[in-house]
Design a protein that fits this description.
- This protein is an alpha+beta fold.
- Helices cover about 35% and strands about 20% of the residues.
- The strands form six sheets. Strands 5, 6, 14, 15, 16, 17, 18 and 26 form an eight-stranded mixed β-sheet that branches. Strands 11-21-22-23-20-24 form a six-stranded mixed β-sheet, covered by helices on one side. The protein has a four-stranded antiparallel β-sheet with strand order 2-1-3-4.
- Helix 3 links the parallel strand 5 and strand 6.
- The longest helix has 29 residues.
- The radius of gyration is 30 Å and the shape is globular.
């Protein structure tokens, strides 16, 4: 600022003063502003505006008004040139719609490269589908205020190529290695039959997972045989049944009824995940590498099953009492559970210093000039570079070209209006698909048919969570076991108590139950979960007529006979949760789904179609989000990378235009 002031009052240079009003980072009201003076040379304000705005943004100040004053009058008699923001109107180079991981990553990258950027978010908070909730402190019960993620909660595939992992190495959030190095691992978990309270033998767990791997390899083979024409329209459930029956036919051994339920649960979570397998395209597995190892001999071998089950038992025991602490690269690859959530870590890191305006639900994005008009401007500038006219004429043509550049107008539901040169649309796929009165976005002119087809063809599925907290004295489940899986296919339970969050359980829930919770209220949903927990852990101690060790040796993996009294529950009432939260991402108007997936009829290239900027020849609207990421679909890392990709596309376009306007050789 000292440099600006010294230049502003040098009589041989300054012809007028630039006066900028700016707001502080903690205020969005224009009334709290301060004025500064800077140099403008002649009538060309652009260079100085860029310098001043860059300096202001670095100090957490946001320009809101631009004034002009003659040098001879100083700051008296200023003429208002432009309202830059602070309420119903704002002018920025780039506006990002959506403050999730993709939008925040893009905005941070652009700001670091000196591009004026602001973020509009419909919710009253930042983070999108990463939402860290804080449970209240209960001093009388010895319970602290604990942070828990209701959305994404893992850093997947931790390695040096993962940008989110690299940020975590710098920020050092508290994490824990996922059981089996995977997030919701079904292998390094303890399985229980909620109807009997029996724990499934480790032998059954080993046998079912061996079967699961072989079926997965055979599913890929079948999908490849279907080819690009049939795989997108063939449900993955059909491919699964075909692969399973083929494998059953080659092996004399079959699964018990309980083991078959285990297998269906594993395959549903592996391949359906956020959707029903009947509505998921087998295209999902067509491009996976085939497993060259023939497991037929192993699955049919009692000796191998026993050998593998013993090693699995050791691995399950090693996952007990998971270590929680700052991220350590020595822990190796795999998945990491963020102990205190994505909010205090990634959302805080990305949003620091950004101008983010919450409560701004975008209803319309208008491209003010047609792509044809844009192209004509570009062609005129390119012809300018080869012309040999006078310098004054060239400058006049360049200014005319700049004035013709198309801009984008964003209209919000509260009546506010924003203009910019570029829009980055980083909202979830479900919002792009919807006609929800609180969140749908209308594009004018409409998006091209290929992009609209991609939006409609891809799926937005549901993965919800139920968080319950009991009194620490009421803990009735295995305290040290991280992953607990009932045969009830609706739930997969993450034991947060084992991670230091006393009395807490988090149930992951997938379709079909996660789709609207069958119309149940939060209380009814929690009651359903408690009934499953009660069936697994609230029964009287059983007197086995056959030892568990001998039952493990049965060929079919079934347990021994129980005492008739085993079905009776404890006399004392089942504990009531102190706190509970039920996530509803599928009905959240600013999400309308948890993650994207390959819906029946969709193809991988349509993800690329969704990610392409618009218009193609003169882009001003860009897209980001996990649904636009081929390599990171359904992951925070994928969303983050897509934000960087879109930001780099915008920077490249800015550079190309600048070269086109300035270069005359």
């Amino acid at each position: 600022f000292s440099l600006l002031k010294s230049l502003a009052f040098r009589g041989d240079v300054a012809t007028s003063l630039l006066v900028v009003e700016y707001m502080r980072e903690d205020s969005l009201r224009v009334g709290q502003t301060v004025r500064i003076a800077g140099l403008t040379k002649g009538k060309d304000y652009n260079g100085m505006i860029g310098i001043v705005f860059g300096e202001l943004n670095q100090r957490g100040r946001y320009p809101v008004m631009l004034w002009e004053a003659k040098k001879s009058l100083g700051l008296r008699g200023c003429n208002l040139l432009r309202v830059l923001g602070g309420g119903d109107q704002m002018r920025a180079r780039v506006l990002v719609v959506g403050a999730g991981a993709a939008g925040l990553a893009a905005a941070k990258f652009l700001q670091e490269h000196k591009v004026s950027v602001a973020v509009l978010e419909g919710r009253p908070r930042l983070g999108g589908r990463t939402f860290t909730l804080e449970l209240p402190e209960r001093k009388s019960l010895g319970l602290r205020a604990d942070k828990v993620d209701l959305g994404a909660s893992y850093i997947h595939n931790c390695n040096e190529s993962n940008e989110v992992y690299n940020i975590a190495l710098e920020e050092k959030p508290c994490v824990s290695v996922g059981a089996g190095n995977r997030w919701a691992d079904t292998e390094c978990a303890r399985w229980f039959d909620e109807k009997t309270g029996e724990e499934m033998p480790v032998l059954s767990n080993a046998k079912v997972h061996l079967m699961h791997w072989k079926i997965g390899a055979r599913m890929t083979r079948i999908a490849k045989e279907l080819g690009a024409a049939k795989a997108p329209t063939t449900p993955i459930s059909e491919v699964f049944e075909q692969a399973k029956q083929s494998l059953y036919g080659r092996n004399k051994r079959k699964l018990t009824k309980e083991e078959d339920r285990m297998l269906t649960t594993i395959m549903t979570r592996m391949w359906g995940y956020v959707s029903n397998m009947d509505n998921t395209a087998s295209e999902l597995v067509r491009h996976l590498p085939q497993d060259d190892v023939d497991l037929n001999q192993f699955i049919g071998s009692k000796f191998y099953n026993m050998q593998y089950s013993m090693s699995l038992d050791v691995r399950v025991q090693k996952t007990n009492r998971p270590k929680v602490g700052p991220l350590d690269p020595k822990d190796g690859p795999g998945d990491r559970l963020l102990s205190n959530g994505y909010g205090p870590f990634l959302v805080r890191y990305l949003s620091k210093g950004l101008r983010c305006i919450t409560g701004k639900s975008v209803s319309k994005i208008v491209l003010n000039n047609s792509a044809t008009g844009s192209s004509s401007s570009s062609s005129s500038s390119s012809s300018l570079s080869s012309s040999s006219g006078s310098e004054r004429k060239k400058k006049a043509m360049m200014r005319a070209s700049k004035r013709k550049r198309p801009q984008v107008t964003i209209r919000c539901r509260d009546g506010s209006c924003y203009t910019c040169d570029y829009v980055l649309c980083a909202v979830p796929l479900g919002v792009l698909q919807s006609k929800h009165k609180d969140s749908s976005i209308f594009f004018d002119p409409p998006l091209p048919p290929k992009k609209q087809n991609a939006i409609e063809s891809l799926g937005s599925g549901a993965h919800n969570k139920i968080l319950v907290r009991f009194r620490p004295d009421d803990v009735f489940w295995p305290e040290d076991t991280p992953q607990i899986v009932p045969l009830d296919q609706r739930f997969h339970i993450l034991n947060l108590h084992a991670y230091g969050k006393k009395g807490c359980l988090c149930a992951h829930v997938w379709p079909p139950f996660a789709d609207g919770w069958d119309g149940k209220t939060d209380e009814e949903v929690v009651r359903e979960l408690c009934e499953v927990l009660k069936g697994m852990f609230w029964r009287r101690k059983k007197k086995k007529t056959t030892s568990s060790s001998s039952s493990s040796e049965n060929d079919d993996g079934s347990g021994g006979q129980d005492d008739p009294d085993a079905e009776a529950f404890r006399k004392e009432p089942f504990p009531t949760p102190l706190d509970y939260v039920v996530a509803r991402w599928d009905s959240d108007p600013f999400a309308l789904g948890s993650y994207s997936y390959l819906k029946l009829g969709a193809t991988w290239p349509q993800i690329e179609d969704l990610a392409r900027p618009y218009p193609a020849k003169d882009p001003h609207i860009f897209f980001a989000g996990e649904a636009t990421s081929l390599e990171g679909i359904q992951c925070v890392t994928g969303a983050y990378k897509s934000g960087l990709r879109a930001a780099k596309q915008i920077l490249a376009d800015i550079a190309n235009r600048r070269r086109g306007f300035i270069h005359t050789k």
